[in-house]
Amino acid sequence: MQITDDLQKLIDILPAEIQQVLETHPSRDSLIEVVMDLGRLPEARFHNQAEYLCDEPVSQEQLNDCIERVGLFGGDNRAGIERTLHRISAIRNRTGKIIGLTCRVGRAVFGTIGMIRDLVETGQSILMLGRPGVGKTTALREIARVLADELNKRVVIIDTSNEIAGDGDVTHPAIGRARRMQVARPELQHQVMIEAVENHMPEVIVIDEIGTELEAMAARTIAERGVQLVGTAHGNQIENLIKNPTLSDLVGGIQAVTLGDDEARRRRSQKTVLERKAPPTFEIAVEMQERQSWVVHVSVADTVDNLLRGRQPSPQVRTVNADGNVDIVQQSPPVPIAPRQALGRAWQGEERIDDSSLSARSPGWRETGKMIPMPQVTKERLSGEREFERLLEESFGERDRFDFHTSKSAGPNGEDLPLHIYPYGVSRHQLEQVIQVLNLPVVLTKDIDSADGILALRSHVKNHSKLRHIARVRQVPIHMIKASTIPQITRSLRRLLDMDEPGIGDERELSLFTHNGSEDEMDALEEARLAVEQIVIPKGQPVELLPRSAKVRKMQHELVEHYRLKSDSFGDEPNRRLRIYPA
């Protein structure tokens, strides 16, 4: 990297006593700023330390002397030094008199955007986030130069405080061929942004410190006109912008949405949720955590959607190693992710459609192991604003309730529970009944993209080539059963979950075969159960049951099938009855 700072010009405006100390200071090249407050000792701040420069407090005469050597202070209480990037900020008392100065060193660092140069060249809008002093404006200046000089684009800089292109009418060489528009007063920045697009035909607009709602709206207007935006905003992470009502529009804005019953069940959430309102103004966001370590969200829309649903995004972490090369690491959720097609092992002994030669799909959110049931919320009457804030806090609070060090509930192949099953041709009512009665960790879904597997009737699958094609392309295995009966559904779900078959006399499973729980039904099922468990299985003898109605006989047939035995109905109505055969 090449650094240009014109540090001597900043030192020359300081009092003589401070100049002498700084000119011979061993850490002079790492100086960040000099702070002078009336009646207090002058202080120099470096990257890792701060120290006093002399033993005499700063006097009003010294402050006045410094003020005379710099340019005029604007409406934002900032001034500069001609043809430099240094910034002098003033602190005033209640009458407007300057009683403190912050003299910040401005440096042009060439080569700072090597970590994101590939993103800059895509033409997408980029938002830089980070705490004050981390180097946002320095990176912005370098991006403007690269876009103008190396990519030959028409770049216009909206320079509110003359901090990007330096003080004075002649711009600093650090911005290259980019043009600069100055802003008379900070509150007019949004107007100058629109003026730049309307009058000067830019391909790229560079903005520093977007901080008001009007500026956020102007940025959206510019982006919708097809102009690339590169800007900065104060905030360490995207979460800070989402929670900031003034700047949330930069990442798409948020709104409360009421879901339908089916959609709420599919998401396993409450009916009122927060969702992104519009496409983000900036497609890419860069969180500048440290000078040599940046977190990059290549899709702000996906990141915001994940955060609002309580999910952990997976951004890139880009760092510069000792050799000066850029290392890119994709952040993954803390819990290991199992591929969706690993479910195949649980379906031994059954026909299924699978294609191991297809490439693995990128896992969805459930596979990250961080989805847990929504908390029970106490219902109370809240104002619209308070309710919105509560939903917002809940969206971000979801991740705080996960303990990444505890073991997660996992299926037989490491997949996370509950399993999401897409039923096709199978009775949804029977499936829900089995899941509820046996308390199985299975969720039915109407979205094949979010399914871990498809449970379908064999006859339906054979005649539906489109379903087989979709399953192959999306790597969702199909598990087939011959008939939509309680026993076959129960066995198929147990295989999916790699569960052992229940012991004889499991009352929960017997309750599955009753329709309305009448006394006649219960007596008939109890008769069949006793016949199977006391005669057919232990003694190997066939048994005939008492005559029953067709509806009750059907339930008895299903119960016998549950024990993996065969049965037939014989005789004439009203004396038609069941005969159970040993295996």
Automatic annotation (TrEMBL):
Keyword ATP-binding part of the UniProt annotation? yes
Query: What superkingdom does the record give?
Result: Bacteria
Q: Name one GO molecular function term.
A: nucleic acid binding
Which segments carry the region annotation Disordered?
A: 348-370
Q: Which UniProt keywords apply?
A: ATP-binding, Nucleotide-binding
Establish whether keyword Ion transport is in the entry. Answer: no
Q: What is this protein called?
A: Single-stranded nucleic acid binding R3H domain-containing protein
Upper classification of the source organism reads: Bacteria, Bacillati, Cyanobacteriota, Cyanophyceae, Chroococcidiopsidales
